[in-house]
Amino acid sequence: MEEAAISTSTSSATATEPAVELEGITKRFPGVVANRDIRLSVLRGHVHAIVGENGAGKSTLMKILYGMQRPDEGVIRVNGSPISFRNPADAIGAGIGMVHQHFMLADNLTVLENIVLGSEPRKGGIAIDFSAARRKIKKISDAYGLGVSPDVLVEDLGVGARQRVEILKVLYRGARILILDEPTAVLVPQEVDELFDNLRGLVREGLTIIFISHKLDEVLRVADAITVIRRGTTVASVDPKDVTARQLAELMVGSELPSPETRESTVTDEVALSVRGLTVRSADGRTVVEDVSFDIHKGEVLGIAGVEGNGQAELVEAIMGMRPAEGTIALGGADISGWPTLRRREGGIGYVPEDRHRHGLLLGSPLWENRILGHQTRRPNVKGPWIDRAGARADTERIVKAYDVRTPGIDVDALALSGGNQQKLIVGREMSGDPVVLIASHPTRGVDVGAQAAIWDHLRAARARGLAVLLISADLDELIGLSDSLKVILRGRMVADVDPGGVTPERLGSAMTGAAAGAESPVAAGAVAGAVAESPAAAGTQGPVTAGAVDGPPATGGPTDAPLERPGSAAAEAGEEA
Ligand SMILES: Nc1ncnc2c1ncn2[C@@H]1O[C@H](COP(=O)(O)OP(=O)(O)OP(=O)(O)O)[C@@H](O)[C@H]1O
Ligand SMILES: [Mg+2]
Question: Where is the signal peptide (predicted)?
Fold first, then answer.
């Protein structure tokens, strides 16, 4: 994306003196030096990006700056003065705020309630002064064009709006320096554009933003300055005007990237997974997945495109037997609709969950025990009725090697791995034992570009051996690049079939938000013609969705901003971002 290397030149006159300076920061964990002699200077009024491989030390450094962790060595200066934080409250006091990768909002509370939680203006010492808080929220929202309304329920907001609430919450606490750890992982391209507009508004007001992302083209678009961290230490500071995404990636890994492989279809006519009339209702009776049908063949990747919260999480959980559903699910011809989750897994379904902390790992257990999780009845983890410790350990070593999980050993707790390395371990585990079907939700979320390419290679190789994959991903390049067929989910319904060979991320993003519906929309008017077409009501029953456009009117969609509820999504994910 060479053309993306245009600086936003948001820097104002204030961008002359450093807001944050880190000098000689070193942080050791058992067996690992997470940060080593880090040197970083972030100018006021800049969007300063930090990039680096999984495990390079980015989150650790940000946790140090936010008072969550203490450095072993080094000096932190904020606005020129040396400081030492004991906890995040100290950092907030110094005007530093952090937005974590996982949303930390409570779904069932309003925006106002979420924002004042923990920092309530009090009347007479006890009562919370909600009207003062509401006024302040409106003021901040207007000042930075965030468009946040205090009285809506968070569960009614889409991911882009939730992201803005998180940012507003940090601003509400008086932050002038914002740390955003992978804020774009869940956003579709249009939402990323909106977020970047908001960030520009903030830096114009003299705020400073530290931005972490693995999406290098985005980094080039939004950043005024970029620092590269490799194996714990700062190796380069570059001007986004002077580098390409590829050069940036090479700075990160210290060598050349492997070039992507060309795609060849491996789709067979043998159905591996068949879903018919699947309907899922939420606890309060609302329909969150409606009459979904599809087949996935051996050797086929079926991608599901959708803005997060449109039913994809519920669809996946229904297929895995984690939530009740109407309709039938068949695995290789056998009706598994009544099977419990473990039996489905034993039957050959691998599962990469969307929330690696909640459903993928036991954070407080060592890696080799995590290898057993969900595979506790199968070789190499058991021999007869017993857990085969040696077998599980040896296979964990194999995964660590094959998937390049950066860890001092298999006896460390999963907690000690960086976010991306946790993800690699889960993918490796779920790909072992030759699954027939892989249900993969965001398989490379938070994974660096090199490791992402490696995971894609593993998936393609398994597909060539006959693996059927249901792929959910917010990374539209990944979705388009890996999928043999693509469906768009909107408010619980499959609304369009898309030819992955003829669609761009931008057009797919429009289809996902329902923007392709209006006749006046340039997307519907022709740009997507041949790529997006309405899914006939009975599409799923007709067997394979062939690559190639289905003729028909453009997809019909409703309002763009009414995603479905994702029950229990926020609070439970509030764990520390790894
Ligand atoms: N609490 C901890 N205990 C032990 N080791 C840790 C802990 N936190 C981080 N580490 C180690 O420190 C190193 C840096 O991890 P960090 O989370 O900072 O990486 P990162 O750059 O944020 O990676 P990612 O892109 O995957 O999120 C890794 O080797 C990780 O295993
Ligand atoms: Mg991290």
Answer: none
Q: Which two tokens stand for residue 468?
A: 């059927």
147 or 529, higher pLDDT? 147
Q: How far is the CA of 229 from the centre of ligand 1 (A)?
A: 12
Instruction: Please determine, for residue 140, whether its predicted confidence score (pLDDT) is greater than 60.
Output: yes
**In the chain, where are the structural domains located?**
1-95+176-253, 104-174, 269-348+435-560, 357-432
The CB of 59 under 6 Å from ligand 1? The reply is yes
Same fold: 1-95+176-253 with 269-348+435-560: yes
Indicate if ligand 1 lies below 6 Å from the C-beta of 418: yes
Residue whose Cα lies nearest atom 16 of ligand 1: it is 57
Q: CATH topology for 269-348+435-560?
A: Rossmann fold (3.40.50)
Which one-letter DSSP state was computed for residue 383? E
Q: How far is the CA of 171 from the centre of ligand 1 (A)?
A: 27
Name the burial class of residue 4, with classes exposed (0-12), middle (13-18) and buried (19+) by CB atoms within 10 angstroms of its CB: middle
Give the pLDDT score at 272: 96
User: Which residues, other chains included, contact 527 with Cβ-Cβ below 8 Å and sequence gap of 6+?
Assistant: 507
Question: Which CATH superfamily groups domain 1-95+176-253?
Answer: P-loop containing nucleotide triphosphate hydrolases (3.40.50.300)
Closest ligand to 406 CA?
1
Strand partners, 43: 18
Of 478, 485, 502, residue with least CA distance to 545? 485
- Which ligand minimizes its atom distance to the CA of 34? 1
- State the Cα–Cα distance between residues 429 and 427, nearest whole angstrom: 5
Query: Mean pLDDT over residues 397-401, rounded?
Result: 95
Atom number, ligand 1, closest to the C-alpha of residue 63: 18
Q: Quick check: CB of 34 below 6 Å from ligand 1?
A: yes
Average pLDDT, the chain: 82
Q: What is the pLDDT of residues 545-575, one digit of tens each?
A: 222 333 333 333 333 333 333 333 333 333 3
Which 8-state DSSP code applies to residue 413? B
Closest C-alpha residue for ligand 1 atom 17? 418
For the Cβ of 423 lying below 6 angstroms from any atom of ligand 1, the answer is no
Q: Is the CB of 419 under 6 A from ligand 1?
A: yes
The rounded Å distance from CA 197 to ligand 1 centre is 30
Q: Sort 554 into a burial class: Cβ within 10 Å, 0-12 / 13-18 / 19+.
A: buried
Instruction: Give the position, in ligand 1's atom list, of the atom nearest the Cα of 56.
Output: 21
Ligand 1 atom with minimal separation from the 53 CA? 25
**For residue 482, pLDDT beyond 80:** yes
pLDDT tens digits for range 508-521: 888 888 765 433 33
Is pLDDT at 130 greater than 70 in this prediction?
Answer: yes
Confidence of residue 256 (pLDDT cuts 50, 70, 90): low
Report the pLDDT value the prediction gives residue 117, as an integer from 0 to 100: 79
Concatenating the DSSP letter of every residue in 70-125 gives: --SEEEEEETTEEE--SSHHHHHHTTEEEE-SS----TTSBHHHHHHTTS--EETT
Question: Residue 37 in contact with residue 400, Cβ under 8 Å?
Answer: no
